[in-house]
Fold these 2 entries.
Entry 1:
Amino acid sequence: MRVAELAKVITIRVAVDSALAADMLAAAAGRAGVTVGILVDIDVGFHRTGVQTPKESLELARHVADTRGLRLDGIMIYPGHVLGPPQRQGPMLWEVGQRLGEAVAAWRSRGLEPRIISGGSTPTAPMSNLVPHLTEIRPGTYIFNDYNTILSGQCTLANCAARVACTVISSAVPGKVVLDAGSKALGSDRAAIDPDANGYGLLVDYPGARVVRLSEEHGEVDVSRCERAPALGERVYLVPNHICPCINLHDRAWLILPDGAASRVNIDARGCLS
Amino acid sequence: MRVAELAKVITIRVAVDSALAADMLAAAAGRAGVTVGILVDIDVGFHRTGVQTPKESLELARHVADTRGLRLDGIMIYPGHVLGPPQRQGPMLWEVGQRLGEAVAAWRSRGLEPRIISGGSTPTAPMSNLVPHLTEIRPGTYIFNDYNTILSGQCTLANCAARVACTVISSAVPGKVVLDAGSKALGSDRAAIDPDANGYGLLVDYPGARVVRLSEEHGEVDVSRCERAPALGERVYLVPNHICPCINLHDRAWLILPDGAASRVNIDARGCLS
């Protein structure tokens, strides 16, 4: 198993929510003669993965602590259900802290110390102080930001570091321009907030424009409410709804350096699915 | 321009809906000493690209015919608005044929013959006979088919040639299993028909399962209505909503040969965006 091979050269930790996953990792660790760090994944409200109760988290922690080849490192949470402006996250993050605190108390009552308590998410990053116990956070989107983080009140366009450069390839249909960027360049993620109104990204410099439909190679922009529309052949810039899967579609990007020079970078981890 | 370079070694045709695009191609063709074939893109109801009236199509055709470096080859249409079961497409395809016929008549009245009349689309492919004048069709999805072509009554699961192989990595949240395939493996395209009910793909062999939410690396499946649910660690197979952007996310695929042997194929054109 690849994880065990990696554990030979670096410290690696895996979040698990089942004894089966822990046992599979332990078997691979045993074959490779390594130790794999384990974080117990606890569901704090997103309801995607994670054990459900303090009792279950304690049982899994004890199982990991008692299994050769594994090292019980702590707890992992992902509060993906907490969106919206930071100043409105207080009540939901209080709940997250409660659920986490119950698990930590259960562990400590049996002498288990979660040395690492890993939190998450770009939306909650600035309010991480509201969740007691955290020792690390894992925001990702914030490196670039995107239309979703603008829409949810976490940043402004000035904080968005990435753009998709597009060209207007058609203006034949009244009220519309068409870009040479579709779902294969932008991704099809809908806007996290009010998707019908917000479309598939923010066209920079054209207030009122809405990216209303994506085909694979076409992005259709409703410009009927724009004071001025981009011209046929014009180069325009788009901030995608969700920068993470967007970046994953591209083999290369251009990094604009502080002096204005452009440097091509390869997106090495793109598509590393298997 | 890359098109002009390609025209040195192969016959290449470009669909255009503006004199500007035609002139840019002509300039590149002139510099490269080649001729580029042109199809005039006519909007037959999808309202994405394409000139709007027979008069506009004639004007653009005459412009192309009069421009050095270009060769007027014919007409391109894309009836992307015609979905649903083939047997119900008659009235809409009749409209498509009407719009196309008016353009052809306008061209012929001025002595211009559209030698190629290129139609389109997987949904309309079996009913192409209902559109007079077509000399070629361009179905794409039909090579594999997908959940969208099942949902719209164009095929059954038995006609779907591609699967995404996934593993159940979590069953900790009641009523749900989580796959190791999210938006970076499947694409985020919603179902073309009744997207809220149909989710993000069809989980093969588990009637009643619904892929209700994708994160980048997770696919959450509601199994609360399944008689039996896939087990933790089980390998399962998913037919994505839209196979075209899905394939575009993968560097490699496995081709299952008639004798059952598997052969790895590289997806060479994936991500050829620039």
Entry 2:
Amino acid sequence: VVTLTTDFGLAGHHAGVVKGVILGCNPAARLVDLSHAIPPGDLREAAWTLLWSWRFFPPGTIHLAVVDPGVGSPRRPLAASAGGHFFVGPDNGVLDPVLAAAGKAVAVGIDVRIPHHRLSSTFHGRDVFAPTVGRLSLGVPLRSLGEPVADRVRLELPQPRAIAPGVMEGEVIAVDRWGNLVTSLTAEALGEGGVRRDAAIRIGRRTVRGIGEYYAQAAAGAPVAVVNSNDHLEVAVNRGDAARTFHAGRGTRVVLSPATPRRSPPPAGKPRKDR
Amino acid sequence: VVTLTTDFGLAGHHAGVVKGVILGCNPAARLVDLSHAIPPGDLREAAWTLLWSWRFFPPGTIHLAVVDPGVGSPRRPLAASAGGHFFVGPDNGVLDPVLAAAGKAVAVGIDVRIPHHRLSSTFHGRDVFAPTVGRLSLGVPLRSLGEPVADRVRLELPQPRAIAPGVMEGEVIAVDRWGNLVTSLTAEALGEGGVRRDAAIRIGRRTVRGIGEYYAQAAAGAPVAVVNSNDHLEVAVNRGDAARTFHAGRGTRVVLSPATPRRSPPPAGKPRKDR
Amino acid sequence: VVTLTTDFGLAGHHAGVVKGVILGCNPAARLVDLSHAIPPGDLREAAWTLLWSWRFFPPGTIHLAVVDPGVGSPRRPLAASAGGHFFVGPDNGVLDPVLAAAGKAVAVGIDVRIPHHRLSSTFHGRDVFAPTVGRLSLGVPLRSLGEPVADRVRLELPQPRAIAPGVMEGEVIAVDRWGNLVTSLTAEALGEGGVRRDAAIRIGRRTVRGIGEYYAQAAAGAPVAVVNSNDHLEVAVNRGDAARTFHAGRGTRVVLSPATPRRSPPPAGKPRKDR
């Protein structure tokens, strides 16, 4: 199985041509689009897409990510294994978060002298990455594709931070098709107590009180916060569009607090337990 | 073969992840997108998509439909067989019209305790429906997936009605990519005589006279009515956009009348024969 | 392998149904979308898509192109072989450029009496072309599908022309997802000397000086011209959108001149050599 995550869009021939080259190498490859609608050059969105997808594919899946504004420049092309999967793409950070999450990452810089078609300077998806995916899918060992890379380019994704005891600050990291606001606040980041059901989420100038179990718990048109399928806190409007309702988008600040906002921290020496 | 009809959109990771889970269950599944561009929560458009597609797939095809605003709520997940095909989706009406059309429908409520990944409350496409599709594709019997359901949720699609002898009223049910207006008036609904070639179609304030054989019969920019590939009466503008020309969209009223509008019904006792 | 290039869009059921019919004929067919986002009726864009894609697929691939405003009219349906690949689509010019480029083209007019489903007058992708693709993929000989066609409909694509010694005039033929302006000026058309690195490209009222190797050579926001992966001269803005920056789109005139514009042609009898 091979997945594709690119900023090629759906109108052009680029995604199809990449698939043609892969199938030319390995006619038995099974190709699955994750997204070709990554905004041009948006490494973060591609990184989140990979993070929220890779583990749901069978072991040995090859994940190709081509968001590559530096195509043709000396930036390195990368092939890697991590968590029992393979990852292929430019060394510009797009693969970094998923390699870190999958664990035990081994990466090589792809040797582009391996002959295949011509080597253009504008379409390495076709000329470098697709042939690499084809070779990996045929069982060619990763280490034979190029020299090991130990200093891959890093990409920092927004992380939530505690700004007061029990108060976490994060931001909107994605707006999905239904207008739901996916935040950087994860159940894991919220600590041992997990998500308090009675917490309040401030987003822009508005506050959503309480964290529910599912969208339809709220009345139609009413806001609801839930922990989504990737463990991220999400603000939605049941049968509505939270992004529009809250005038929010990627980067909008989100603050999670206990239900009754505290004006001062708890007295020293008296540890507070939220649960 | 597995088809997918969802309101996931093409930008997110959702459709890809559903495919990953299916391929994890059954690497030999052949996946075909019908549409991921169903407007959020639009059960009718998903139902029409299934109705106009299912019979063109080989027997035994599994059709997955995920338009599911009630995800995570107590609404039932459904798996069904009808007309030699399988259908999987939430019990909110989205599958009802195609099950009725395919005939001999047998439905079960999917037992979600069947273990697979975690069970989120926001993404049953991944956690409930995809594993069910995987199992069905491996030959697991439908009845082993859960308890029979006899009272599935119904969904009424717009039906044409006679408002005077020979005069049928319907509405626009879909606007396709070319701006063609697909109406609820079917050749079948128009009765034994079928579609009169000299009928007049009133749509909004305008009237199209005569029903043609194909789009290019009309001059470029001129309107033309045809019976389309799914037996629905359709109003088009050759090499143009009927939706724009007629200021029409889903729900716009359409009236089909004999060419010369009759002011009174035909005399009693003298049966009228349109053809 | 079967590729699909259509103006069906991604919202409707049309692309999925075509795939269903193909898989019904041949369950082993491997389907790859080139594009379903060809603007309605846009034969040129479909022709470019095929030209820039076909050679990257394995020999024997069947390329289906359905951009067919004349569907249902007496226009002929075509099946052809050229360059070791197969091509299927309406005889309206959409296949002409790729057949000419692939070479040794043999075409037949598809006999639509070959029974398959019903024959609608609005969806030959489903009723004529998909069954033809299915048959070809099963090894049915091309010549058994219908009578030879020697006078296929031609389609002229914009060709660059010399307007003065060393000065070539062309136009923008495509705008890709990143806003890059793909021009009709090809390395081949620029003659034996190929592309002069010090050339100037005038596009609308602005001029880009010099032809670079890759996008990221320019500063962020600065324009850069490159020869793209299909040998077309392309004007881009690094990490920007050239179409917006240059107020340019399909059809915008582009003039390539030597770096220092000449006011008069070189003296007669003294052949100029650019390289």
